[in-house]
Design a protein that fits this description.
single chain
Length: 292
């Protein structure tokens, strides 16, 4: 009750500072990151026509990780680390697109294989950075790689991006419903499939890159949340997209609360908690879908 009262009072008490300077910004970061990852997962699963697709399947998180770890190695933090992570993610986005779209021969299979190969390459670079760095930086690197919201910050641009993603997703939701049935069906119904694929690829990539720069590599959110909603009957993207936003954000907010409190005063990386919850949840979803 005291914390609820602090929401509506303006003072310089310690509890008020903790609420407005730590708790609310971190909660906002958790919700936005989870929402972006869940929406990106929806888009990736439609784009690649693969139920196992998640936001990281095309190597975006690997590029961001290399950029972030390079900044940590140089002793940089704050905006430098965030900018380095986003630059690495952006480079990976353009690299995968450039290779997959060489000579204009775009295909889902080519895109997926390119993403997997690039992701493996980033993984090798990450291992080199981890094995050659000093022990002082290893813990910071591992926390970032497992997902960490302790130093995360979001601003108006993140809220605007989330709002734009929601409105844009609802705008193309009918096209996504058709594209799920196959590209031939979509083309026959008058949908410009090449343009839609480009829009989906870059939209999902930007959402993922933004989420990774905020919280590091938080796994399972973009994979489990869309499947959970489909299992509940939300197969229409007009429901699936806003549902993923709300459930993804709420899920990561809950996971971060557990990460902060389960072994307090120590904190777990939030990515560890999402994995612990996500693995059995996905196995359950997989078993239910096989029965259906």
């Amino acid at each position: 009750m005291q914390m609820i009262g602090e929401l509506f009072t303006a003072n310089e008490s310690l509890s008020n500072q903790i609420l407005w300077d730590i708790r609310i910004p971190r909660s906002a970061s958790a919700f936005i990151t989870g929402a972006l990852l869940a929406m990106s997962g929806v888009i990736m699963q439609v784009l690649l026509r693969n139920p196992l697709a998640d936001p990281y399947i095309l190597g975006i998180s690997g590029g961001a990780a290399v950029g972030a770890l390079s900044a940590i190695l140089l002793g940089l933090g704050g905006l430098w680390l965030t900018n380095a992570a986003f630059a690495g993610a952006l480079f990976s986005i353009l690299l995968v697109f450039g290779i997959a779209n060489k000579f204009g021969k775009w295909s889902v299979t080519r895109l997926l294989l390119t993403g997997v190969v690039v992701s493996a390459g980033w993984g090798a670079v990450i291992n080199i950075l981890l094995t050659t760095t000093s022990t002082n930086n290893v813990q910071s690197m591992l926390f970032w790689l497992m997902g960490d919201l302790s130093q995360s910050q979001v601003g108006n641009a993140h809220f605007l991006l989330l709002t734009a993603a929601l409105l844009g997703g609802l705008f193309v939701s009918r096209s996504l419903n058709v594209l799920v049935r196959g590209e031939l069906v979509a083309s026959a119904l008058g949908i410009n499939v090449p343009s839609l694929r480009l829009l989906l690829y870059f939209s999902a990539s930007i959402l993922t890159a933004t989420a990774v720069t905020v919280a590091g590599s938080v796994g399972f959110v973009g994979l489990v949340i869309p499947h959970a909603l489909r299992l509940l009957g939300a197969r229409d993207h007009r429901l699936l997209i806003p549902g993923s936003l709300l459930l993804g954000g709420s899920f990561l907010l809950l996971a971060d609360t557990i990460a902060r409190t389960v072994i307090a005063p120590q904190q777990l990386p939030v990515g560890v908690v999402t994995a612990v919850i996500g693995v059995p949840a996905f196995i359950l979803i997989l078993r239910r879908s096989m029965k259906d």
